[in-house]
Design a protein that fits this description.
By secondary structure, the chain is α+β, with helices and mostly antiparallel strands. It has 14 helices and 31 strands. It folds into 3 domains: 166 residues, Galactose-binding lectin (Jelly Rolls), CATH 2.60.120; 202 residues, SGNH hydrolase (Rossmann fold), CATH 3.40.50.1110; 147 residues, Galactose-binding domain-like (Jelly Rolls), CATH 2.60.120.260.
Length: 565
């Protein structure tokens, strides 16, 4: 122990012997580049240090290549972090500053607020820069050492934030980026607050704040009105009515496309203002899509929990949501991530809402009725999640107040079935570009729909059905035969929605529902199907058979059936 103490003392003395090392002072803009049409940079004389600073406007990226050779960088590993000066534009936007290596996929990001229009100094340790790929923190074994940093970059891949709204154009000035030998850190052993504290407040009818963190599932992607329909706001409304407590507030901080590393990077941005009593965490779908391994996923979730505890000074309880399944192969592919969440919740005595078990216990077919696409729940899916989560919290709090009996809406009348085999009954179809009716390769010597994508298409290839009147709340089965001879690119069968009968009224081309995509093969006709729940306010639909503009090849389509379940 004596020798260990001496080693620590010596290392500390060595750190203090180092002097800050300026990496860039932005007296000139030599070595600065940009990407993105909205990004720009210029030299400003409103400097924090010296006579110049860089003014950066994003979205996009602006990067500075550090002019140091390998021999000059040997001592960098002895530094504990960097410091820099920032002057914001007074907006609510947070701008990322990244440390990047040109060797391999090493990029680490830290977000700074732009609210202050005065120069502010930030001292940031290596452990506060979060990797944008599946690697460790700067300086960790197997990750990038400080001497591997080649680029200081402003901006990152993100151009959206809460509610998947585009990040507006924003500007900040930066100056005097330098290595720091010592980063003062207050040791923290904070852990998440015991869930009993939150449950006791809920039981006593006191005001509580719940903050939901996650990806597009929590954000409400695929919903016509995510702000009013996603499970977080429904949870708030259910608990308020059930418990007679208008002081229950549920805040949604989820962003579509987020991975666990993104939650770690956005921590300071997400946790501003009032400290939440309960933080819910539902994350993992995009980690799996990005080929993140089970071990790394578990490690980063655990680290995120630790960071939330430190940020909230141990005043927030945490509820983990076991990563839910997706349609098709994703029905089982997410099981390992769900199990890791169960393990972490058990090991750390955290609340666990097992969405995976709840959704999978329905069976694949019933589960699909609650999904808008492969990954995202529809309105009915979000409603079910909110109901089950409310039941879970009330039960955990040992509240005996009876749940209000919901007024049962009468089942909608069964809608009309629509079928076509293109045998003289497709005159109402609208055929665009290289779409036509043909007997070529048709089944039973009949007629089918043929869409051809050429090497240089001027537009997407499309065929639209006649308007089909539907009933809100009704579930429809969409079936069709497909012979897929597309060699490159993709196709889809979509539903365009209208708020009046007979294809009249408002139509949003950006919110069409894909029910079948990229299925079939080039040798035989195959039958494919998908389900569709008609949202409130929708009275008619059109079926769109679509081939992407950049595709080549041919798609044959026949025997369409749209039938209410």
């Amino acid at each position: 122990m004596r020798y260990l103490w001496l080693f620590v003392v010596c290392m500390s003395a060595f750190a203090f012997a180092l002097e800050p090392l300026v990496l860039v002072d932005f007296e000139t803009l030599e070595g600065v580049t940009k990407t993105g049409k909205q990004s720009s940079f210029k030299l400003t004389d409103q400097a924090a240090v010296g006579s110049g600073a860089i003014e950066v406007t994003l979205p996009g990226t602006v990067a500075y290549r550090l002019p140091f050779d390998i021999s000059e960088k040997q001592s960098w590993n002895e530094y504990q972090g960097i410091s820099f000066q920032v002057k914001g534009d007074g907006s609510d936007v947070w701008m990322p500053i990244s440390l990047v290596s040109t060797q391999g996929s090493y990029s680490f990001v830290y977000f700074v607020p732009l609210k202050s229009t005065s120069w502010t100094t930030y001292k940031v340790g290596w452990d506060e820069f979060i990797p944008e790929s599946a690697v460790g923190l700067i300086g960790e074994l197997g990750s990038l050492p400080p001497c591997g940093i080649d680029i200081v970059r402003f901006g990152c891949r993100w151009n959206i934030w809460y509610d998947n709204a585009p990040i507006p154009q924003h500007t900040a000035c930066f100056d005097q980026v330098q290595l720091e030998p010592v980063i003062d850190k207050t040791p923290s052993s904070f852990q998440p607050k015991s869930p009993e504290h939150f449950l006791a407040k809920l039981r006593a009818g006191k005001p509580v704040l719940i903050q939901c963190q996650g990806d597009s599932i929590t954000a409400g992607t695929s919903l016509r009105d995510k702000v009013t329909s996603r499970y977080s706001i429904q949870l708030q409304n259910i608990l308020r009515e059930w418990l007679g407590n208008e002081g229950i507030t549920v805040l949604n901080r989820a962003v579509g496309g987020a991975r666990t590393n993104d939650l770690r990077a956005w921590l300071n941005r997400d946790f501003i203002g009032e400290t939440p009593d309960l933080v819910t965490v539902w994350i993992g779908y995009n980690d799996k899509s990005g080929a993140i391994g089970r071990e790394y996923y578990a490690r980063t979730v655990n680290d995120y929990i630790d960071r939330v505890a430190r940020k909230t000074k141990g005043e927030s309880a945490i509820l983990l949501i076991a990563t839910g399944p997706g349609k098709g192969p994703r029905f089982t592919m997410m099981d390992d991530f769900a199990q890791e969440i169960r393990n972490i919740a058990k090991e750390r005595n955290l609340l666990l809402f097992d969405a995976s078990h709840i959704l999978k216990s329905l069976g694949h077919e019933a589960f699909c009725d609650l999904m808008a696409d492969m990954a995202h729940p529809n309105e009915a899916g979000h409603q079910m999640i909110a109901e089950k989560l409310a039941d879970f919290l009330v039960d955990a709090a040992k509240i005996t107040t009876p749940k209000p009996v919901k007024e049962q809406k009468p089942a909608p009348p069964k809608g009309q079935e629509y079928t076509t085999s293109f045998e003289g009954d497709a005159e109402d179809w609208k055929l665009e570009q290289q779409a036509k009716l043909t007997t070529e390769l048709a089944q039973d010597n009949g007629t089918c729909l043929k869409l051809t994508a050429l090497e240089k298409n001027t537009d997407h290839v499309r065929a639209w059905s006649k308007p089909i009147n539907v009933i809100p709340g009704q579930v429809y089965q969409i079936e069709a035969d497909v012979l897929n001879k597309i060699t490159t690119g993709r196709y889809g069968i979509y539903l365009g929605e209208y708020d009046e009968y007979d294809g009249k009224g408002k139509f949003n081309s950006l919110k069409m529902h894909c029910v079948i995509s990229n299925k079939g093969n080039a040798t035989r006709w195959t039958r494919h199907d998908g389900k569709y729940t008609v949202p409130e306010g929708i009275k008619s639909i059109r079926v769109l058979v679509w081939i992407a503009k950049e595709s080549t090849g041919t798609l044959y389509f026949d025997n369409l059936k749209v039938s209410p379940k």
